[in-house]
Amino acid sequence: MAAGVPAPPFVPVSLLELLARHDPARAEQVQRLRDEPPPDAVLVLGPAEQAVGQLAAALAARVPARLRCAPVEVSDRHARIAETRAVVWVFDAAASAPEAHWARLAALAGQVDEVHLALAGTERGRGGGAALAAVRARLAEQLPRLAAAPVHLLAEGPGRLVAALVRPADYPGYRNALRVLETGLVEALGRRLTRQRNAARRETLEDGGSHQTWIHVIAALLHEVSHPFHFRRP
User: Fold this and answer.
1) In this predicted structure, what is the pLDDT of residue 216?
2) Are residues 19 and 185 in contact, defined by beta-carbon separation less than 8 angstroms?
3) Residue 178 placed within a domain
4) In 10 A of CB 6, how many CB atoms?
């Protein structure tokens, strides 16, 4: 290892084994990312489809990486996520993204550690205004890990985005492996907590049902005691 070069992050075997018990497919993905050559492609996509194509063309001449652009609905296989070191997601200032697009961004951010955000459709020199504020608010709700990430305004030119992309993070394969590992474990924990809550809710309902039965019995007895001739025929 050259002096001054940080050691690659270590994928804990115990956590990988834990993930394999709950999500074998994702554990296999972690192993591939850890062991195969590092990913070197940049994937550009997002709701602002016209801006996506223009941005990809502008980046291709300035970023030393394989550039791909794709529609939001592209599958992981066709997008070649395993070869992707960075995702550039382009929001559209003219329209809010539907829930399906937010879900897609969350899925990508759960597999690729390096995610860059851009906003198309703003006016140059105006700072993004309400559109940028709306994007940041939704990021805080949907993707807290990206809530404080820079949102590059394409109206100001791609310079800052280019600068970010030409300085890729060290060991992107390991970083993506760790990101997938974290995502898988968090989702597995979420499923377990959901099962526990559902089980507790069923127990509560069952207990509540038996309590309601006794309440009805006691209420009927009290009613008969307070009206002793109510159920008697003349």
Assistant:
1) 57
2) yes
3) no
4) 8
Which distant-in-sequence residues (6+ apart) come within 8 Å of 175 by Cβ? Answer: 9, 113, 114, 169
Q: Shortest CA distance to 149 belongs to which of 173, 180, 113?
A: 113
**In this structure, how many other beta carbons lie within 10 angstroms of the beta carbon of residue 68?**
18
pLDDT for the residue numbered 176: 93
Considering only CA atoms, give the Rg of the chain: 27
CB 45 within 8 A of CB 73: no
CA–CA separation, 29 vs 42, rounded Å?
Answer: 19
Q: Which of 50, 55, 72, 90 is nearest to 162 (CA)?
A: 55
pTM of the model: 0.79
Q: How many CB atoms sit inside 10 A of residue 152's CB?
A: 24
Q: How many separate domains does the chain show? A: 1
Which residue range is the domain that position 64 belongs to? 39-170
